[in-house]
Amino acid sequence: MGTEETWRGVDRILDASLDDLALGVDARGRAAPQVADWRLPEDGRVILGSYGLPAPRDDDYLGVVGDLQESTEPHEGVDGRSWYVLGSYDRSRLAAVEWTGQVVAVPAGSQVHPDLAHLHPSGMSLTPVNSTLGAFVECAWRWHRLLPLLADEQERAGEAEVSALKAGQPVQDMVDPYAGYQELCRYVLSRFRKIDPELEADSGFWPDIIIDVW
């Protein structure tokens, strides 16, 4: 697959419906009965119950993994908020905040050691992921489909860099082989911001993941 074909594939995924994105893919949490009793906005509960979240990947890429808590009661949060666990990304738990439906990433080991409690009086900080549960489900499924395409493009850029170096091309004269890949990542992030206009501009959960696929 070449760069132009990758761009077309990315656009197809970004324009696709959730029905198409989740079709034929193993998901976790579809029609999970406990979700109906979670104290979250109804529209988010409906979307989560309809599509669930991606199951663990069968490749080496790191994606969002659905693993909904079975309890109908929320967990007590480290900062006074309570949340429902939706799944994970790497070592962080992903959770929907009670009442608001905001999705946050809870770092591993979020309980602060007593000796460090004075430095973190409200507990370890949470990373905002999406402003709504519905936006999170949509971003999670699009990312599940996009990840292999972006990873391939990143690998292609790396191969171009190695080829240029082997050919003896001076680094200062080299056209940045990652420029096209970075442009593609920025485009994906801009489309994610259309799904959720409250996404952080330059840093945060999705910006950090999208700009740095590996």
Short overview:
With 214 residues, the protein is of the alpha+beta class. The radius of gyration is 19 Å and the shape is elongated.
Describe this structure in words.
With 214 residues, the chain is an alpha+beta fold. The chain has one domain (3-211). Helix content is 40%, strand content 14%. The protein has 6 helices and 8 strands. It has helices spanning 3-15, 18-22, 42-51, 133-166, 179-195, 205-211, and strands at 27-28, 53-54, 65-66, 75-76, 82-89, 92-97, 103-106, 127-130. The strands form 2 sheets. Strands 3, 4, 5, 6, 7 and 8 form a 6-stranded antiparallel beta sheet that branches. A two-stranded antiparallel sheet has the order 1-2. Helix 1 runs antiparallel to helix 4, helix 1 runs parallel beside helix 5 and helix 5 (179-195) packs antiparallel against helix 6. The longest helix is centred in the C-terminal third of the chain and has 34 residues, at 133-166. The chain is elongated. The protein starts with a helix and ends with a helix.
What's the total count of β strands?
8
**SSE-based structural type:** alpha+beta
What is the helix tally?
6
Order of helices and strands: HHEHEEEEEEEHHH
Catalogue the unreliable spans.
Answer: 111-123
Shape: elongated
Distance between the termini: 19 Å
| Radius of gyration, taken over Cα atoms and rounded to an integer in Å | 19 Å
